[in-house]
Amino acid sequence: MKKVAIIGGGYGGLRAIEHLVGNKNITISLFDENSYHYLQTEVYGYIAGRFDLHDVALDLKNWCHGFNSPVEFIQEKVTFINSSEQQIETQNGKYDYDYLIIATGARTNFFSFIDGLDKYGLGVKKLFRSHNFRTSFEELLYNKLEDPKIQGEKFNLAIGGAGLSGVEIAAEMANVIKKHAKSIGESAREIEIFLIDASDTILPGMSPYIIKETGKRLENLEVKVMTKAFIDKVDENKIYFKNGDSLDYTFMIFTGGILANTIDSDLEVETNRIGQYICDENLRLKDNIFTIGDCCQLTNKDGSLLPPTAQTAERSAEYIAKSVSDLILNEPIEPFVGKVDGVFVALGGHYAVGEMFKVIKVKGYLAYLLKKLVTKFYFIGLKLRLNTGFHKRTINEED
Ligand SMILES: Cc1cc2nc3c(=O)[nH]c(=O)nc-3n(C[C@H](O)[C@H](O)[C@H](O)COP(=O)(O)OP(=O)(O)OC[C@H]3O[C@@H](n4cnc5c(N)ncnc54)[C@H](O)[C@@H]3O)c2cc1C
Prior knowledge:
Blueprint: E1 2-7, H1 11-20, E2 26-31, E3 36-38, H2 43-47, H3 53-56, E4 57-59, H4 60-65, E5 71-74, E6 78-82, E7 87-90, E8 94-96, E9 99-102, E10 106-108, H5 117-120, H6 127-146, E11 155-160, H7 164-179, H8 181-184, H9 186-189, E12 191-196, H10 208-220, E13 224-226, E14 231-234, E15 238-241, E16 246-248, E17 251-254, E18 258-260, E19 264-265, E20 270-271, E21 277-278, E22 284-286, E23 289-291, H11 310-328, E24 342-346, E25 352-356, E26 360-364, H12 365-398
Helix pairs in contact: 1-11
Bound molecules: flavin-adenine dinucleotide (FAD).
Flavin-adenine dinucleotide is lined by residues 7-13, 31-34, 38, 40-41, 43-44, 77-78, 103-105, 124-125, 164-165, 168, 261, 263, 293-295, 308-311, 313.
């Protein structure tokens, strides 16, 4: 029996397990510092109050128990990889492995060259940060209802970074405010949403169709889009731009960049400018150490960089699961071939914009339904596994 250890219970880690679990030659251990799988792709709905906690955080122990073959879950932060001893180290101990898959994802890059960003900017790549924003925002709305002193005060929600996550958050927040304007009352008119990016367009790198249709939708939702806007400094209530302008804000969410989560090790590894591991064509850092998802630099067929998405994390995970199984059988392994089948951008409520295989273009309710189908399918798969795991654990405890 070979021991396969996976670090990170995100999109990549879970997909790797699903594809490895039928293999009778291996045992699988999943390590994550958190007890839950965090559905980052749904977080725009959570912070806007459309989804609840149980929609975005699913218990990893129950999920791991949901398989017929055992998958061990160890809730510990991995602090060191000792590749010469084939061991990973946590605060509580050392664990042996034969094959290691690093799927540790990424965190928000609060650029150090923007003074004050780290202190005042809010991120969404960690659940506690999204939760803090949601509760603070709700509290502000509540206070506006209860406290006559702040009724009538205007406030701005600034979102720094108009990539996929920033755009989805801006659109969902704007849509919720618009949709509930009657109930929220005057406060709804007092909230303005600003979407800020240093590039000369929103969604830099995406297709002209997606950019154009997203721009139209944001305009309809009355989101104020600021492009070519270089943030220089942030203080407690103002964002200062390089051109001398400034913007008052009450909340600032920053989604302008990521930094890979890497782990100290005895390996000699290269990383790129955002800290992602640079692996070989088989996504290896060493013969038996692989890396997948946001924590590594992945390339397309044509050599261009793949964007860090759940889709790419899952595709690289499927590839690695096959490679590990082949290696155990002493079979040769093929290089990783990355590609993006399609992109869907959720744009508030029942509206999305999407493009598949570069030729099929959809927008509005149909695009929303297609995006929903993908996420629903993913969610139902997770839920079924959770249910099975939960019942198995309950029965075992009763015994
Ligand atoms: C608002 C938002 C919207 C998005 N929308 C989309 C979308 O529509 N479509 C899409 O494809 N992608 C989308 N993404 C991107 C997508 O969420 C990421 O690309 C995806 O989460 C990457 O998966 P991963 O498995 O590499 O890492 P993650 O999902 O980040 O998982 C990494 C895991 O590793 C664990 N971990 C990290 N370090 C350690 C350690 N040292 N020890 C133990 N555990 C550790 C973490 O706790 C975490 O559970 C969106 C992201 C955001 C923030």
